[in-house]
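Tokens as discussed.
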């Protein structure tokens, strides 16, 4: 492991695993994976875009380590997190003769990671998988923590399982081919870690945003490692979201409803929904007197300066009205006895979990396409 490669451990006892972050990890993946394999054979799941860009380097590295491999390329995009693609993938893995002791590799963004992890969790009642995340979002968030799943007709991530990966290889070189829109979507989840529990990190992001966008490798590694450390600590404390893990859902009840409202399409990708959702969560916190209006404005300004949407009116085209959005929010997995759970904040870096929000205040917030 060279000096530029950083390691974060997810401390989950006999299911603990390492996250490696840095350049050249896809080209060296075979060496990292080999100690995990019962036999020298893996199945790779990727999407058509990542398959063209990064699969050849992974295959070369597996060849160099004497690991046999086959790959499936699924369509790129959120609509691939579906029962139809889960069935296709499961059929393919079984057809390839993947055994219970084998390992499946997810090479791609959060869509491929979530779908592959879910398929691995049900295949022959559970096979191992490794994450090789290629988007900023998947490197800082979705590849870590074992939430896997697909979307259903009723909403976001509604069928899934907790299934931890054996290894995560976050190759920062992969980010060189990532479109800026997708980089920013991942950046929203990076900002989330500052907002929920680390004001200093948020302030570091305010100072270093341009370096991150311009591709400064040292800054990117710092941001990814800080994010993975924050997520690893929360997951180790509460793997199945009985309590504190819900903080990682800041902005997501709003964001998931907006993704559903826009048909899980390119009109609004996940990180963009989270960005608007986090701005709304801070706005609601300010209106309820938990945090200052200055903090809420500072959050919104930072997201907007990054180039992210931060208002409902930033979404092009029609949206359901406030009651329609609240109905979509009702499918959230944090609902208890029909009551929504909110992640709100007392300030930047000080988020908390509550079910005590007046429905009228929520409706008023969502009625305004342009909150002040
Ligand atoms: N499991 C979790 O804890 C968790 C956490 C956050 C988000 N998610 C899920 O992750 C998904 C979003 O993930 P995402 O933002 O990575 O989206 P994604 O997987 O759809 O990837 C975004 C786009 O970038 C392309 N792409 C990926 N890597 C590339 C690269 N290196 N170069 C060029 N193009 C590349 C993909 O083909 C795709 O078109 C959502 O479904 C969300 O619900 C899950
Ligand atoms: O890992 C978690 O826990 C998260 O909530 C991370 C989120 O960024 C992620 O989008 C997650 O998939 C949302 O989970 P869900 O339980 O609301 O579907
Ligand atoms: Zn998310």
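Sequence:
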């Amino acid at each position: 492991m060279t000096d530029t490669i950083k390691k974060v451990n997810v401390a989950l006892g006999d299911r603990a695993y390492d996250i490696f972050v840095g350049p050249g990890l896809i080209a060296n993946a075979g060496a990292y994976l080999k100690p995990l394999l019962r036999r020298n054979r893996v199945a790779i799941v990727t999407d058509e875009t990542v398959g063209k860009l990064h699969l050849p380097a992974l295959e070369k590295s597996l060849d160099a380590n004497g690991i046999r491999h086959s790959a499936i390329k699924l369509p790129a995009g959120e609509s691939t997190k579906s029962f139809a693609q889960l069935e296709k993938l499961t059929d393919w893995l079984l057809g390839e003769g993947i055994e219970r002791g084998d390992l499946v590799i997810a090479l791609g963004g959060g869509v491929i990671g979530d779908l592959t992890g879910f398929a691995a969790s049900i295949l022959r009642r559970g096979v191992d998988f490794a994450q090789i995340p290629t988007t900023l979002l998947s490197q800082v968030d979705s590849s870590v923590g074992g939430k896997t799943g697909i979307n259903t007709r009723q909403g976001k991530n509604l069928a899934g399982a907790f299934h931890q990966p054996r290894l995560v290889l976050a190759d920062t070189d992969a980010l060189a081919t990532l479109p800026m829109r997708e980089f920013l979507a991942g950046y929203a989840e990076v900002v989330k870690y500052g907002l929920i529990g680390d004001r200093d990190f948020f302030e570091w992001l305010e100072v270093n945003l341009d370096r991150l966008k311009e591709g400064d490798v040292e800054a990117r590694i710092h941001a990814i490692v800080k994010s993975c450390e924050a997520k690893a600590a929360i997951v180790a404390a509460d793997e199945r979201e009985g309590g504190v893990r819900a903080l990682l859902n800041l902005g997501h009840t709003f964001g998931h409803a907006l993704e559903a409202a826009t048909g899980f399409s390119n009109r609004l990708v996940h990180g963009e929904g989270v960005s608007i959702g986090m701005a709304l969560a801070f706005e609601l916190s300010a209106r309820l007197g938990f945090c200052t209006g200055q903090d809420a404005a500072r959050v919104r300004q930072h997201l907007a300066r990054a180039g992210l949407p931060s208002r409902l009116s930033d979404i092009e085209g029609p949206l359901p009205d406030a009651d329609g959005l609240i109905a979509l929010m009702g499918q959230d997995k944090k609902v208890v006895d029909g009551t929504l759970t909110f992640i709100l904040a007392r300030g930047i870096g000080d988020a908390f979990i509550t079910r005590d929000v007046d429905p009228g205040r929520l409706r008023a917030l969502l009625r305004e396409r342009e909150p002040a």
